[in-house]
Amino acid sequence: MSENTSFSRAWSARERVSAPSKPLSFLEGVAMIVGTNIGAGVLSIAYASSKAGFLSLLFWLVIVGVLTTITMLYVAESTLRTRAHLQLSGLAKRYVGGVGSWLMFLSVCVNSVGALTAYMTGSGKLLHSLLGVSPAVGSLCFFLPAAGVLWLGLKAIGRGEKFISVGMVVMITVLVAATFLKDTTQMRFLLEGDWRYMVPVFNVIAFCFSAQYIVPEMARGFSDKPAQLPKAIMVGMGLTFVLLTVVPLSVISLNGLDAVSDVATISWGKALGEWAFFSANIFALCAMLTSYWGLGGSFLTNIFDKFSLGSDTQSLRRFGVMLLVVVPPFILAYSGMVSFVNALYFAGVFSGVILSIMPILILKGAREKGDITPAWQCADVITHPVLKGVIVLMYILSALYAIVSALGYLPAGW
Q1: Count of alpha carbons within 13 angstroms of residue 181, beta-carbon side
Q2: Distance between CA 185 and CA 179 in Å, rounded?
Q3: End-to-end CA, the chain
Q4: Main localisation, per the record (predicted)?
Q5: Is the pLDDT of residue 36 over 80?
Q6: For residues 257-263, average pLDDT
Q7: Whole-angstrom Cα distance, residue 58 to residue 177?
Q8: Helix (H) or strand (E) holding 201
Q9: Which end of the chain has fewer CB atoms at under 10 Å, N or C?
């Protein structure tokens, strides 16, 4: 479609209200990917693989990491083909249609609410272990800085992610080194496990690589240098893979599969000593905080985009939408209806299916009806129909497994 068509001009005029006011640096963009991915998932995957074992976990980290990066690049090309700054639900509406838009929006809602609920639960447990306060008070202490930076917007999120992500890498390096120097660490623990339980691990891993949602938000920050977007995605996902691998590797090799807690840093820190207990759980809080900002910010802007609420810098509207984003997860966390790992598991199940199908359809529509032909496009090898079919099939089969195992007909993962 020509850039001068009336359709493109009309759509752009209506949706350009979401344009960014402050750009992101390359490092801030990478940090947004890492910070969003390294949240509650990195704390739960060791426990989620407590029956399947580390090798099953590593297998899925490679497979899901590669497939997720590919679908993120589909979204990246689609955003670069679109003059207006649209979130995922907006891209789905333009290139797939109304049903696709609602499915994508529901996926954003389920994944975000599941994640933010897990962060409320996990932060309460961590601060209870660290400070002795009740879990509800601990969650409230976590909630205040989390919501505060979310209120300040994209640039504050990017800067916060950058500084805390650097700190997390330093803490992880120290903790991993201490683990391998500990005389009780045993590599044989990494070879244990039962392959029959490996399928449920897939869905928790799918949640860990959940940064597809923030690609359009990053595109807003890279609007002055769009070629940096795919590079930031690939670097961020590579760093994510490393961190998601070394944390459960260290936890399992130190404690064994039977002694891993659902929030892994609690058992990890206790095994290394008091200094490590505080360091590991401060890392865990930072991981939850950065992921909260990434997913919470994406959820907020998706609501603005889906319901055409105008600029997300309007204070009164932003405050109202923020209440919708941050209050329900806090209530759910203490309702007794959902556990820490299960919140991530079922969020990964539902959102994984949508995110395996929708980016493929969005890219197809963007190549047919986009406004711009960008300088960067996905390589032919990652857009081959066979690869797309494999992506869709894997996520659909894993969702079917989750449903059947929830009914008790197949083994659960933990």
Answers
A1: 8
A2: 7
A3: 51
A4: membrane
A5: no
A6: 81
A7: 20
A8: helix 198-208
A9: N
Name the phi and psi angles at 81, rounded to 5: -85, -5
Region label for 5, one of left (φ > 0), alpha (ψ between -120 and 50) or beta (otherwise): beta
Task: Return the DSSP state at 5.
Answer: -
Q: Which two tokens stand for residue 216?
A: 């359009």
CB 372 within 8 A of CB 323: no
**Residue burial 218-246, b: 16+ Cβ < 10 Å; e: rest:** bbbbbbeebebbbbbbebbbebbbebbbb
In 3D, which of 360, 16, 75 has the Cα closest to residue 229? Answer: 75
With CA atoms as reference, report the closest residue to 232 among 240, 10, 99. 240
pLDDT range class, residue 12, cuts 50, 70, 90? very low
Distance, CA of 29 to CA of 233 (rounded, Å): 8
Q: Which CATH class is domain 21-406?
A: mainly alpha
pTM of the model: 0.80
pLDDT band at 154 (very low <50, low <70, confident <90, very high): low
Domain boundaries, the chain: 21-406
The total of other beta-carbon atoms located within 10 Å of residue 299's CB is: 26
- Cβ-based neighbour number of residue 385 at 10 Å: 8
Q: With H, G, I as helix, E, B as strand and everything else as coil, classify residue 413.
A: coil
Structure tokens at 386: 């066979």
CA distance 211 to 224: 21
**207, 42 Cβ separation under 8 angstroms:** no
SS3 192: coil
Nearest to 64 by CA among 348, 341, 377, 343: 348
Provide the strand spans (E) within 10-127: none
42: CB partners within 8 A, 6+ apart: 208, 243, 244, 247, 248, 264, 287
